Amino acid sequence: MATTPPPLQGPTSKEKKYDRQLRLWGANGQAALEEAHILLINSGSGVVGIETLKNLVLPGAGNFTILDSAIVEEADLGVNFFLASDSLGKSRAEQCCELLKELNPDVDGHFSSEPIETFITKPDALDPYTLILATAPISPEILEIIIAHATETLTPLFYIHSVGFYSHFSVHLPHAFPVVDTHPDPVTISDLRLLNPWPALTQLVQEKTAHLEAMSDDDHGHVPYVLLLLHFLEKWKSAHDDKAPQNYKEKSEFREMVRAGTRTSNPEGGEENSEEAVAAVLKNLNPPELSSNVKEVFNSAECVGASPDSQNFWIIASAISSFHKNNKVLPLPGSVPDMKAKSNDYIALQNVYKTKAREDFAEVLSIVRDIEAALERTNPIDEKEVEAFCKGAAHIKLVRGKGMHIAKPGETIEWLDRAKFAFGSLTNPDSLIHIYIAFLAYDSFGAAHPADGLNGAALAPGTTDFEADTEKMVGMAQQIIDDIIKEAGKTMEDPEYTEVKEQSQKVVTELVRAGGGELHNISAFTGGTVAQEVIKVITKQYVPVDNCCMWDGVSSTISVLRL
Amino acid sequence: MDETTVADMANGDGSRIKWKFLDRIVSRQGPFADPDNPIGEQALQMLSSVKVLVIGAGGLGCEILKNLALSGFTDIHVIDMDTIDVSNLNRQFLFRQADVGKHKAEVAARFVESRVRGVKITPYCGKIQDKDEDYYMQFAFVVCGLDSIEARRWINATLVGMVDEENPDSLKPLIDGGTEGFKGQSKVILPTMTSCIECQLDLHAPRAAVPLCTLATIPRQPQHCIEWAHIIAWDEERKDITLDNDDPEHITWLYQKALKRAEDFDIPGVTYSMTQGVVKNIIPAIASTNAIIAASCCNEAFKFATGSNPSLAYPPPDANNYMTYSGDDSIYTYTFTHEKKDDCPVCGNLAKTMEIDPSWTLQEFVESFAERPEAQLKKPSIRSEAKTLYMQSIASLEEQTRPNLAKKLSELVSDGEEIAVSDPALQISFKYKLVFKS
Ligand SMILES: [Zn+2]
After folding, report:
1. Cα B286 versus chain centre, distance
2. What is the separation, in whole angstroms, between the first and last Cα of chain A?
3. Which of A218, A285, B52, B82 is the 20 to 30 A CA-CA neighbour of B73?
4. Residue among B31, B329, B333 minimizing CB distance to A558
5. Secondary structure (H, E, C), A69-94
6. How does pLDDT run along chain B (438 residues), one tens digit per residue?
7. Phi/psi at A302 (nearest 5 deg)?
8. Residues of B in contact with A45 (CB under 8 A)
């Protein structure tokens, strides 16, 4: 037998290596990942930062740089996998960089052993990097400089703690961080527009359902359910003032009407396509409503007042908002779920949806071009970008990046518009806000107790005196809690108040117990979650954390809070 | 044991200096830990003396081996039958391009041993089914990072079967992790005391198979064309060649067949990558989710071995024992108690009630087990209280019982009768009480 020649479009060696991830974020996501340059500002025992990088080097994030002035000590070897026995006494940045680079020859790794205190004073020091990871402890003054840079240059920043059984990270994103490709659950994405059929669809319904009664069992059992539903909707409307079923009761009645259309005289005693139609009634007969995410985008200042130098996202959003005003629906995504049907009927149905989607896209594109002309923009937006937006329009997401708290000794943390939310979280047993508060106290303690070591590193609470440091830290956390209550303009009575204090005391004690040391498992876990979020931010796919994520390794739970 | 003694111990022999952080936390009483648990030296003793078994040296397994070695465990065994493929390299970080083709267990064990001084890792390159109860009895617990549901069910049934009420050492906790794309789950099972893998099976219902008639006559999706090439065209045209999913020539042949069929039906979208995905049933896998789930499993192992904090499933039976993780839309975990089932075929003792249509043929009934979420049996054999109804695993018996397949259930069993269903892939049998639908 002759061997089959390899196809022209067979996978490249890179596609083979990255096959399992390309099935998630595709070639676009991979390209974005490969263009990234990630800076890790590593402090403390620094394992969580290295574990994060491991999970970014493996999938092929293009470049990384480690900034770390520490010298490898014996204690590093018990917790950091990317150091070997012969690393002792050498630069930790260099050693980790070398061993990380082994993981993926496609990735470029760099390092610097310069202390952050001098590194940061150089102008443009942070400019080469597209994303910054900073692990605690970092002095509040330096953290302020990094945050200011991130805000000004729209560079995403992650600030990370991993101590004992607890970890936390905060994500600092640009003020507007829109995501088009959110990868919604496939079950939720088909928009069949049953309540607003267009002429071509109506015509197909008439063509394929005009002679339902006369059809053979085989044909009758293969009419696509979408056409069945539209057929019965017409029938319903003619008996109900041309109105579709309005409420649950009417929808249930309509469902029975569809069910009654099932042919049971066949050998199977029922029909799969009819079952599919019955099951789809309640989901697909809702008037098209915009999700709160889409409304937020349409109503935001950037969308209403697009300007010549707006991001492409806002120009397209503005065009789609106009489209929605004109048509009362979003552009049709054009996908049709699989259903019981004969091949040619299904393909015909699919083509009607695809053609309509292309028409909607063309309308949006012409609005985009009008806006571009009105704003005198010279670089036309790529059609593909507009098309992708049209397909995902119902599921776009806007994350509003916000600043992060910097804990300084003697200064009160400000919660601003999140004060009431923080107050509510204090008594919510599912919220891990007490871990967040404990880490604020931890940073404040560190800033007040600089160690004698290099790097201006802070002394972690519990390093030597568990009990005395616990007492101090409990008091600091208590102060933060009282400040939240005050800023929220609320009061808290006993027994609630005592319960909140007791919970906080336990969490703080657990944190101080570690004396600032990392447990490998907790840092490996956190390195996984941070890397995952970095990938989402770099690829602009999926929905990132907004904006604080706490992991409790005692109870094995995560809580994400906007604080 | 107070802190100074641990410090002395560390400084005394020098070798514990590297465990500074771990020793510190284990030597201090935690506010959430059981106050009766030992702290300090005794807890550390546990860590370095227990033998741990890791099943799987793939995406999760590599992470698990690294994490256990850096959690202070010193005697680790690992089983994996697979060899290294180039598509493993995006997440299985103990392997390099030059290792492609070698045994995973062997390469992973040597790598972690060379990186973490003082840990001994014993690899076994083979199947878990090669080993008997005596082998499994030597471990304190088992950490499982597998992508095969069959292997999970096998080890679960084995560990449940090993429990001897007279001997507390015979109860081997099973810590199990699994991932798919941005999602995953980790759980701790105390065999016979808490919900087992089999109790949880319906949480992982199989995807419904596409009916054969769709593939054969009315394909609509590109996947239908690929399945047609895979299941039908190959057998028709290349009967004498055993399909090898890893042979690029074979995949290319299927791809071109599928592409031609898709063109005939006007179906767009068949690609080489999709062909590979459908034929090999590829599940997306990324480094970050593996890191998260493996670390969660090893965190439970560490808490369990040191008593430094309560691990999942403790105290049984009411404690949370299951964590689900989802990372595609922000991050969520749901940590809960999955209840043990009295009618679990492995750890329960009641027969499960099943409503059946008595007019079904035995054939239809046999085939339905592949898609039943709580059973998922591909080659079931069925016995009633009185006789063997159908037996697939032995050829002569299969021939003998085959005529039953065409008979109606009402001819073979009575309303309310109990049947036992077994499958050669598992060493358990499912008990069902059949109730006729009126
Ligand atoms: Zn069970």
Report:
1. 18
2. 67
3. B82
4. B333
5. CCECCHHHHCCCCCCCHHHCCCEHHH
6. 344 444 444 434 457 899 999 999 999 999 999 999 988 898 898 898 999 999 999 999 999 999 999 999 999 999 999 999 998 998 999 999 999 999 999 999 999 999 999 999 999 999 999 999 999 999 999 999 998 888 999 999 999 999 998 999 999 999 999 999 999 999 999 999 999 999 999 888 777 888 999 999 999 999 999 999 999 999 999 999 999 988 889 999 999 999 999 999 999 999 999 999 999 999 999 999 999 999 999 999 999 999 999 999 999 999 999 999 999 999 999 999 999 999 898 998 778 888 989 999 999 999 888 888 888 888 899 998 888 899 988 888 899 999 999 999 999 999 988 888 988 887 778 888 899 987
7. -65, -30
8. 21
Write A232-235 long-range contacts (CB < 8 A, 24+).
A232/A257, A232/A258, A232/A261, A232/A277, A233/A194, A234/A205
For A476, residues 6+ apart whose C-beta sits below 8 A from its C-beta are A441, A444, A445
Q: What gap in Å lies between CA A54 and CA B245, rounded to an integer? A: 30
Counted residue by residue, chain B has a size of 438
How does B60-96 read in b/e, with b if 16+ C-beta sit within 10 Å? Answer: bbbbbbbbbbbbbbbbbbbbbbebbbebbbbbbbbbe
Token couple for A498: 């005592």
Cβ–Cβ under 8 Å, residues A140 and A94: no
The distance of A343 to chain B (nearest Cα, Å) reads 5
Domains of chain B: residue spans and CATH? 31-204+284-336 (3.40.50.720), 212-280 (1.10.10.520), 352-436 (3.10.290.20)
Residue B38 DSSP symbol? -
Which amino acid, residue B146?
L
Q: Residue B213 catalytic?
A: yes
3-state secondary structure of B356: strand
Neighbouring CB atoms inside 10 A of B120's CB total 13
In order, the DSSP letters of A159-177 are EEEEEBTEEEEEEE--S-E
* Domains of chain A with bracketed CATH: 13-174+521-561 (3.40.50.720), 186-398 (no CATH), 416-516 (no CATH)
| B352 CA → ligand 1 middle, Å | 12
Q: d(Cα A477, Cα A440) in Å, to the nearest integer?
A: 8
Tell me the C-alpha distance between B316 and A134, whole Å: 40
- B201-206 own/partner pairs: CB under 8 Å, 24+ apart: B201/B153, B201/B373, B201/B374, B201/B375, B201/B376, B202/B373, B202/B374, B203/B338, B204/B149, B204/B178, B204/B373, B205/B373, B206/B370, B206/B371, B206/B373, B206/B376
Residue A455 falls in which region: left (phi positive, over 0), alpha (psi -120 to 50) or beta: left
Chain B: residue whose CA lies nearest to A465 = B3
Catalytic residue among B62, B144, B199, B213: B213
Residues from chain A that touch B320, judged by Cβ atoms under 8 A, are 555-556
Do A393 and A331 touch, CB atoms closer than 8 A?
yes
Q: Please list, in sequence order, all residues whose beta carbon lies within 8 angstroms of the beta carbon of residue B145, skipping any fewer than 6 positions away.
A: B54, B55, B56, B58, B59, B60, B61, B63, B64, B177, B178, B293, B294, B297
CA-closest candidate to residue A411, choices A503, A493, A476: A476
Looking up tokens 């003032």 gives A241
What ipTM was predicted for this assembly? 0.95
Please state, in angstroms and rounded to a whole number, the distance separating the CA atoms of residues B102 and A28: 33
Distance, CA B195 to ligand 1 centroid (Å)?
A: 5
Dihedral of alpha carbons A339, A340, A345, A347, sign: positive
Which residues, 6 or more positions from A41, have their beta carbon under 8 angstroms from its beta carbon? A49, A67, A68, A116, A132, A133, A134, A135, A138, A146
Assess A174–B contact: CB distance below 8 Å, yes or no.
Answer: no
B234 interface with A at CB cutoff 8 Å: no
Cβ–Cβ contact B216 with A under 8 A: no
